[in-house]
Amino acid sequence: MVLAVDIGNTNVVLGGYEDDRLVFSARLATETKLEADQFALQLRGIFDLYGVQAGNITDAILSSVVPPLTDTFTRALRIAAGVETVVLTQQLPTGVRVDIERPEELGADLVAGAAGAKALYRLPAVVVDMGTATKLTAVLEDGTVPGVSILPGVFLSLNALTNGASQLSGIALQPPTRAIGRNTAQSMQSGVVLGTASMLDGMLDRFEAEMGHIETVVATGGAASFIVPHCRRKIVLEPDLLLHGLYAVYKNMKK
After folding, report:
1. Catalytic positions
2. Architecture of the structural domain at 2-87
3. How crowded is the C-beta side of 74, counted as CA atoms within 13 Å?
């Protein structure tokens, strides 16, 4: 089994691949104060939950946008599964070329998402990653990443709205029946859900105007399932895109 691990600002997502198939995936909270052995205990619990024998894990590949946790988690994987972990960098055979002003600034999560889009979908594509931040990554027909758009994520925006306005309380992130809300909760749901969906549609129009026809728009991240159904554009929902991208890089390394 090959483990793929993506460390994000909110969650650590991991999955196991056997015979080119994702056989399990799980999430942990991103807690920068935990030590390697504490993460190892959590990993062992996940392995037990999904019936994974640690001795069957042969390799691991990891992407991270939380530098303090990168080394901690590689040590946790060594403790829990006895494997040495490959950390995703642009020096690996990712299958994508980063063509921005400062390539080193592109996050490993965006590289993994672009690699996943290239491995699984028709290009040119736009990857919409809706996590702590909402990120739109352009991927050209030859696998080149010419740039990205980054804006506050859905949950981050919702928290800012409720914390910054004394008369607005927390709401469930569910779609309203209409755009024109008739009470405070409906109004906020309209703005957060339908407003974000409209923003994505508009940004994708702008991306297409700059990069030409887009064959595929693929969305991932914790908020994607709430927003994508309300977009007017056709968007493929792929919750495990980053894991698939990491596994594609791993396979390229083994060629």
Report:
1. 109
2. 2-Layer Sandwich (3.30)
3. 14
